[in-house]
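Our consortium's second objective concerns turning raw sequence data into structural hypotheses that experimental partners can test. To show how far this objective has progressed, the report includes one record in full. It was chosen at random from the queue rather than selected for favorable results. The single chain below, 134 residues long, was entered without modification.
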Amino acid sequence: VMLVDDAKENLASLQRELRNEPYDVIIAHNGAEALDQLGRHPCKVILSDVKMPKMDGFELLDVVHKRFPTMIRVILSGHADVRLILKLVNEKGIDRYLTKPWESEAVKWTIRQCIELFDLREEVREHRSRDETK
């Protein structure tokens, strides 16, 4: 799981909350760092803040979708206009949306669900691939 946020305190808090979860957590402080790390450490799930300098979360997740189309994308936003965020989530095909301030259990549950979704999609792809080769 990759976490992306330019606010170091948010990343530190999320890392603490996820330290006992059964998956590795990779952090990045901006979009460029996230893309660099993903090139070396593919992930099942990326959770990104919206407001970041140079490349916002939606821009980052667009690039992620193009480069890593199977990765599950989650946006984290403290934006007050929930309708606008949901409109963007739907337009961009983001898989999940979490709000700031977040609830620890909601983040854990969402990430677990996203990992399950990734694994299920992979299983379906493998099954279809086997059927096509028969």
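The partners drew two points from this record. The helical segments are 8-18, 31-40, 57-67, 82-92, 104-133. The mean pLDDT is 92. Both points have been shared with the crystallography group to help prioritize constructs.
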